[in-house]
Amino acid sequence: xxxxxxxxxxxxxxxxxxxxxxxxxxxxxxxxxxxxxxxxxxxxxxxxxxxxxxxxxxxxxxxxxxxxxxxxxxxx
Length: 76
Known about the structure:
By secondary structure, this protein is mainly α. Helix content is 67%, strand content 0%.
């Protein structure tokens, strides 16, 4: 019968001395931080686009018309 303390042994890919599951939590933290930074970036990008549209209304109107034309000619 195998020993029952094999659950505490690190996996071959884990560093010795780490608690099992600690690696997953750091990966989750890293993923959450990446998502937060991405969300902030997308908010800033949307804000910059709105500002550009207010500053250059003629260019914004032309871009809207081009996008509408592309959407009309797009085949589903």
